[in-house]
Amino acid sequence: MKRSITRLLMAPSVILLLIWMIVPLSMTIYFSTIRYNLLYPGQNNFVGWMNFEFFLTDPGFFPAVANTLILLASVLIITVVLGVLLSALIDRPFWGQGIVRVLLISPFFIMPTVNALIWKNMMMNPVYGIFAWISESLGFEPIDWLSSFPLASIIIMVSWQWLPFAILVFVTALQSQDTEQKEAAQMDGATGWHIFRYLTLPHLARPITVVVMIETIFLLAIFAEIFVSTGGGPGYDSTNLAYLIYNQALLQYDVGVASAGGLFAVLLANIVAFFLIRAVGKNLTV
Amino acid sequence: MSYLAITDLQKHYDDYHALRGINLAIEEGEFIVFVGPSGCGKSTLLRTIAGLETSSSGAIELDGKDITELASSKRDLAMVFQSYALYPHMTVADNLSFALRLAKAPDAEIKEKVQAVSKSLQLDALLERKPKELSGGQRQRVAIGRAIVRQPKVFLFDEPLSNLDAALRVQMRLELARLHKKLGTTMIYVTHDQVEAMTLADRVVILNAGQIEQVGTPLELYRQPNSRFVAEFIGTPKMNLIPLDQAVKQDSAVELTLLGKSIAFPTSRLTGDLSNQTIMGIRPEHMHLVDHAADLTGKVELVEHLGSEAYAHILLSSGQTIIVKASARIDLADGQQVHIQLEVDEMILLNDQDRVISASTEGE
Fold first, then answer.
1. Which one of A183, A188, A196 makes the best mutation probe of the B interface by having the most chain B beta carbons within 10 Å?
2. What's the pLDDT tens digit per position in A76-101?
3. Under an 8 A CB cutoff, do A187 and B102 touch?
4. pTM for the full predicted model
5. I need a surface site. Which of A40, B78, B221, B322 has the fewest CB within 10 A?
6. All domains of chain A, ordered by start, with CATH?
7. Cβ–Cβ below 8 Å for A185 and B146
């Protein structure tokens, strides 16, 4: 009796969430099996696996998958490693600690589009960017970052955007670390490095897992930074899956192929999630 | 030269003077207890000895070596913390061997030492467990084991029993006393619990407001306190402090006048000058309820029965309430008139500066 009332009361939200998920997913599956090109309206006949074939044999497909994974891995490594180091560094009290923390966190509040524009126009621009000015004042040729190292440029932008998130999580976690444990280690003869290695890192295992999981969700779908800065180019050098799907749907007006790409992206996300959870998820149980 | 010598140690926090000139000499193998109320500086003193706090001035010498500026890892001291501070990600065995592994001791030696310690503390069966799978008492034993395994010059204990329940505390107290007998290593122990201080210590250091109030064996402190603070701090229930109406020094005795009665106090025990307002101190067990008219008369306010004994709270005509120890079978009605006999031999006198001006009978 009590249980059925509970279920009854929960039903509206559960059903709403289910519809919210099921409808777009089934629409996407449906679109991926029909010819659906906005340039040829009315010819929506069933085509089977054809859309998938088009997407998988697209010249941009393998570069896009590779770029997606490289982008994901690089940004994860940069944000977690730098995040842990910077957090450990600013955990000790020093003069101006509050301001430094605010400055370290603030890039997270800048929207991705603005972030990309700042990097594109103020930092990496070969004529009046700060990097170019530094190169020139040191007597080197300025580098055109976005066309010479497009993917590396995107990685820098996205890392700058996501590092604050990692720092925010790690700093909070470090504040809950027991000081008596560190003092005990100090008396046991541990150096700063030993304390970091044997106490702080294990203490951060769970927050690192959380950061990796959450960042993975967002990093697989990076779009704004690419759209604003490199436009996926030159060639497919900075095209990731999200950008390739956008390319299919809104530049080539082929909703069918884009839907097939979308389903492939869902598959890829699941594979990545599977391995990530296996690799780092065991920390969650400790 | 003593084993651990502390000379004029001062500690300032930003605007707080935590330690105000500590001088203390500790001999090798002694069990020293620092005791005092919250905020008296006892933990700060211990942490300064450990090197976890830096002193503002003064010197600490251990075994003939100045360690004032030395990093805590180089002082050869081991500390047991209030929260135990076990390393949560390591097993009991790893916790015990951490210091040895950092010191790069040979594997065989580490294994042997860990085994010896875990056996003596009955931790053998727990070696592969993580700290959070242990009970409070077991964690406590691991923390002690982690200190023992290093064979340090001095053990430091920072209120190690305060997180345990009452029964376990009594048991661990005994184990600590046994451990000290077995190892014979110098131990410094901080507590706010005077029962721990009295039962464990060879010598007790009583701290008050960043200064040492008195140092002595538990019995010395109990029988011959230097000051009102020590007199009131040691002993449960507290010593009764009764202001005298008058104290007049005569040839053979000091005549104390208390609520119209007069008591003779031997002059030979007087060590200081009488002041305008002299206070008499006497412990509850040195007063006796008697049938006949005696030194004091009062009304029963309340009787606390503890089973083995009873404490009668008695209201004097001056309005002051004193506590008298009585036999467990005493039958007193509230408001009943009682007579109290004092043991003059056990009394102490305090002047208006709160200093004790009498010597105990033992000292004669």
1. A188
2. 999 999 999 999 888 888 888 889 98
3. no
4. 0.79
5. A40
6. 49-285 (1.10.3720.10)
7. no
